[in-house]
Amino acid sequence: MNIEGIFDVTSYRVNTEAHIRVVHERCAGCSVRACTFACPARCYTWSEERERVEFAYEACLECGTCLVLCDQGALDWHYPRGGFGVRFRGT
Ligand code: SF4
Ligand code: SF4
């Protein structure tokens, strides 16, 4: 299965609160912005207008890639509250 196919077997129960928060002040020293190209769900985008990374948590796959790759410690990362978040068919 390729990464696009994962959304065919994925559903969400979206929480009203984000389970990941970007501490934007810490992004100042980041030149790579790995989050913007490594997230398989494309939750991170660079905003030229706001000159910062924007984050949308709703499609998060809870894979942890962003947490591993962010070398500035800019992510306050938690799993969603119980009963919320991603569901993979067959799990
Ligand atoms: S990788 Fe981390 S520090 Fe860099 S832009 Fe993304 S969240 Fe900010
Ligand atoms: S945990 Fe995975 S899917 Fe969720 S925002 Fe981070 S990289 Fe994207």
User: What name does the CATH topology of the domain at 26-78 carry?
Assistant: Alpha-Beta Plaits
What ligands are attached or bound here? Answer: iron/sulfur cluster
Task: Tell me the major beta sheet.
Answer: 2 strands, antiparallel
Number of strands: 6
Mean pLDDT across all amino acids: 93
Q: How many helices in DSSP terms? A: 2
Oligomeric status: single chain
Shape: globular
CATH class of the domain at 26-78: Alpha Beta
Spatial ordering of strands, largest sheet? 1-6
Q: Using the CA coordinates, give the radius of gyration.
A: 14 Å
* N-C termini distance: 16 Å
Portion in beta strands = 15-25%
Q: Are there runs of 5+ residues with pLDDT below 50, and where? A: none
User: What structural category do the secondary elements indicate?
Assistant: alpha+beta
Order of helices and strands: EEHEEHEE
Could you estimate the helical fraction of the residues in percent?
10-25%
Please give the CATH architecture of the domain at 26-78: 2-Layer Sandwich
